[in-house]
Design brief:
- With 504 residues, the protein is α/β, with parallel strands linked by helices.
- The chain contains 19 helices and 21 strands.
- 40% of the residues lie in helices and 19% in strands.
- The strands form six sheets. Strands 17-18-16-15-19-20-21 form a seven-stranded mixed sheet, sandwiched between helices.
- 50% of the residues are buried.
């Protein structure tokens, strides 16, 4: 897409991640079999959490400033916009008080204030009951536990709050003045019922949490207001409609998976800071085995549920590179991958989901210490550390996919890998090797593209999600990685399972 090129105004997707955000414009071109979705990045901006004393927060007003800057940049490039949508990570939220004023900066999900909150909740509502009511994976930073942590700390925020908005809802409120939730993101909170499509106020009440904080949650793809006059004045835009897209970034990424055979289920891996592996199902899978596997049932686009498991992804690699940058090493991403490829294979393995890797001050040191604790030789140079991390991620992808397959009774032909991980050719190839099945990688910007698809559906430019996925496959053909060396990877998987079984 060429800025300012003739044609209808594009839709604009804001995709907010844990380390940065981007604004991506998209519109349809051509017709018939030549119809394509053309996208262009309008801008990027950092999203740096802020530590204030012992608390870790999101700088939400800085994000709002960057979103407005993206809107203004899009107006300069295209003259106008057809619609706007925002997506972000899950579970975090802002609280609004009287007159709609923001009550402090939202907590970051890695802030430790939720320590012990799960156990306190389960003392009132047992773990099995919470899962039966919500279908959501037990993670200590889920919204339910964040709220209970505020209550346990006697936080004045809960007393002063009149409404709770998830991060994209909050930014959308700042743009439109309207308060709406959205179901894909609401479903991640462990406060929402997949059976009623509403907040579980009975569960909230039993835990002493104010259920009236929660605003109604609309279906993904619902128009949810238009830009406020003050925002129009700042950006030079008109009354552009704002759509509540699939606002959980994973829901948008899965919506953009280029799976074109509607009659066959498919498996996906949304790979970035986190790796989320699963499949789409027609109804939540809430069984004793699903609880034991600690999987999650999140609402998806197109009337589906996303049965998946959340595991640590490229966070480990990102934090290694951050640690080396602090030491003055400024290698490129490609140079780091070359170092990993040159290191000896299968020298050591880690469990990416070990608590030691949640937020260590020095990730390479944490990897070496884990290896020593589990009776393995610690990786030596940087390439060996990276190879250990990437091979372990690939092997964990296999372990998690096999659990999902066991729950649905299906062996998938391969794996659709979408998101930023599609840029990591080593991880894509090694995941195919570990699975013994092909990996179809791309699109890299799946989250922004899924965001755009939901906007195009709301605008009436697409008939349904199936048409959208066929459009993605035609517009952004995935790269195929075929498995190799099955015997070596089979032996490595056996050793990996032993490491997981013996980790502290």
């Amino acid at each position: 897409m060429t800025p300012g090129a003739a044609g209808p105004p594009p839709a604009l997707a804001f995709d907010l991640g844990a380390s940065g955000g981007r604004a991506v414009a998209g519109r349809l071109t051509g017709g018939g079999s030549g119809r394509r979705l053309v996208v262009e990045e309008v801008g990027r901006f950092p999203n740096d959490p802020v530590r204030a004393r012992d608390r870790l927060h999101w700088d939400i007003l800085r994000l709002l400033h960057e979103v407005k800057g993206g809107l203004a940049a899009a107006r300069r490039a295209y003259g106008g916009l057809a619609s706007v949508g925002l997506d972000s990570w899950a579970v975090d939220f802002g609280l609004l008080g009287r007159h709609g004023e923001l009550l402090g900066n939202p907590y970051h999900y890695r802030d430790p204030h939720t320590t012990g909150a799960m156990e306190r909740v389960w003392a009132v509502a047992p773990r099995a009951e919470v899962f039966a009511r919500t279908g959501i994976q037990m993670l200590p930073f889920n919204t339910l536990y964040q709220l209970h942590a505020l209550k346990a700390a006697d936080s004045p925020l809960l007393d002063a709050a009149e409404s709770l908005l998830m991060i994209p809802d909050l930014l959308r409120y700042f743009l439109t003045g309207e308060r709406h939730g959205e179901r894909t993101n609401a479903s991640t909170t462990q406060c929402f019922s997949p059976f009623t499509n509403d907040w579980d106020r009975d569960l909230l009440g039993r835990l002493g949490l104010p259920g009236d904080l929660f605003v109604p949650a609309v279906a993904p793809g619902t128009p949810a207001g238009a830009l406020l006059p003050s925002v129009r004045e700042e950006t030079g835009l008109g009354a552009v409609p704002v759509v509540a897209v699939a606002e959980h970034d994973t829901a948008s990424a899965v919506a953009a998976a280029p799976a074109t055979d509607a009659d066959r289920p498919f498996a996906y891996l949304s790979c970035g800071t986190w790796s989320l592996i699963g499949t789409e199902v027609a109804a939540p899978v809430i069984t004793e085995r699903a609880l034991a596997e600690n999987v999650t049932n999140e609402i998806g686009a197109g009337g589906t549920f996303r049965l998946l498991k959340n595991m640590t992804g490229l966070w480990i690699v990102q934090e290694c590179r951050r640690a080396w940058a602090r030491e003055g090493q400024s290698r490129s991403h490609e140079d780091d991958l070359a170092l990993a490829a040159a290191a000896p294979p299968f020298a050591a393995a880690i469990d990416p989901d070990d608590p030691a890797f949640v937020n260590p001050p020095d990730m390479p040191r944490a990897i070496r210490e884990f290896c020593r604790r589990t009776g393995q030789a610690a990786p030596g140079n940087d390439g060996a550390v990276l190879r250990c991390a990437l091979e372990s991620l690939a092997l964990k992808h296999r372990a998690v996919l096999e659990r999902i397959e066991g729950l649905v009774g299906t062996r998938f032909a391969g794996l659709h890998l979408v998101g930023g991980g599609a840029r990591n050719g080593l991880l894509c190839q090694w995941t195919a090797d570990a699975l013994g099945r092909p990996v179809w990688a791309g699109p890299e910007e799946a989250t922004a593209i899924g965001n755009l698809l939901l906007q195009l559906l709301a605008l009436g430019q697409l008939a349904d999600l199936g048409e959208g996925r066929r459009l993605v496959a035609a517009s952004f053909p995935p790269a195929t990685y075929h498995p190799a060396d099955p015997d070596a990877w089979g032996r490595a998987y056996e050793r990996f399972q032993q490491v997981i079984g013996q980790r502290p």
